[in-house]
């Protein structure tokens, strides 16, 4: 629908009033809410709160109701690096943010007060819903935005809820409790000049709504006044003919998957414009398309989007809805079709649970799955057919699933789930699909749906075999993304992105000068080589690392000097220079640096400090080429080459074949400060973190994580090379090691870690070692 029509209708809807002031207030309220409804109808759920936050902040900034410096802190959450938290209930990261906040006038002495009144603050930080609690002591009178700033530092995982509360307080509850508009209401706003445009998402068929609305109004296939064209197989001519006929006769036309015919879209745009005038008043067009995978991939013409009512429809979320949805693929007849009824029903229900778990586990990001897979109902129905054929043939049941899966660790996860859910005990009624959710016995179809409603525990990571920390991590990532997006949406000339009032250019210049001053000279590799007598595997790795570091620091200096000249007006600003300027301003690692560096999820400030530490480590090692007492494994561009060098050194010494060797990993009971010299064979390494569980140093095994401690650090680990057939594989969890929490392609190695529990527990919990957090 054209924005002007939205505006016009909002003016008509506004309540009349004799008082000019009241009338203007009513108009503003009606227009704001109408624009909000019009926009959010076409947004996916994950983007609605981002839009709402941006809308609220812009209104408050325009009315001068918020302090720009405080909003800047909220959006950026800057952290004073190198600080140590003096209280156990706040992480070092959180304390670094509190230190920055305390330097602002309104938060003066906040840090001292937290230390002095630790008990009250601990209670606030550890409460279940801190966004609903008042701040302790005299801080309770702070404004809503100031409350958000404190929350952002202390409990980033609750920020999506806190923002909802903030919006409700500032704009009113209708903005947050609003249910999605039903199809009939949206349909009323359509017309010959206003098509309806469905943005598709997996597992949802929005056209069912169109069909049922059509039935009510007498538009059906049988009545020959309802045309459905699925594009993508040369159907463009059919679509054009259907549009021409429908415009003349007042029929309805559905055009499915218009994103598959990119070249024809301009023709479609012209056709729709042509029929928007002088067509039959009952003529309606409904289109559907998948969202573009990236901003560059947008192909739908603006004219089509601008004139349409855009509607998203998404699959329900959560285990409860997904388990019902999985079961909905079958009927009472399905349950009765197999002669081995008890086994068939039990395995079918377990498969429905499995299907719901693998689909919904995606929301936990890389800790859920290394890569994202398009699991669909076809996978489930095919598996049930296979199950039926196996049981009827009296064969041993083997379930095939996961043809989509490309990652070995994801394949292991999928196998483990099936191994946990489908086992002989299920027929004795002794199997739990999740804590507190036993596999149901022999029931009819409706009985299973009722069993889900009555017995399935509330939504939590436990339903997936994950620890509650997985949800904290997922919520923190969601809020980080929200604030990052809102920050990038701030108008260039606004004060919201310019905390202390310094201009954008001044900030960039200051940062640029600081980086140039602190980044070190290149390593002189020929000179270093001259100091080496024997090129051992370790020394080869050191030279490779120096070479990679030189490429990176050279690009940092080159690009910054170029930008410096551009800002002075001595060079014409190019798009590369502008991108670099934006990255510096938004605390992001510039793309040309990231390409030459190592995977990292850090912002620019933290990334640069980490870079300086890596350089320092490399300088110390190449100073005399003696192995450090413990090696910071994170510091390598290529940690695999270093771990391979451990095997090569041992292989040369013992004359063992390299392809028959493996690395053994023993976790020590000490921290790096307690080691004064390297081991005689192998290496000590430090700097690793565990995600999904923690290491029990005293018992020397993996154990359950502590709540809110998402990535506890590991003690020093002793890595040595042994013959592969000498590996002890009893009571161990094969633990993948990744460079970052993004997992997937950042895989480094596999370390076997001792466990008393069944290793499958740690597979389902997504336990991994990370080199950086």
TrEMBL record:
Domain annotation Dynein heavy chain AAA lid: ranges: 344-470
Domain Dynein heavy chain region D6 P-loop: 192-312
Domain Dynein heavy chain C-terminal intervals: 476-771
Gene Ontology molecular function, alphabetical: dynein intermediate chain binding; dynein light intermediate chain binding; minus-end-directed microtubule motor activity
A single cellular component GO annotation: dynein complex
GO BP terms in the entry: microtubule-based movement
InterPro entries with a match to the protein in the record: AAA_lid_11, AAA_lid_11_sf, DHC, Dynein_C, Dynein_C_barrel, Dynein_heavy_D6_P-loop, P-loop_NTPase
Protein name (Swiss-Prot/TrEMBL): Dynein axonemal heavy chain 9
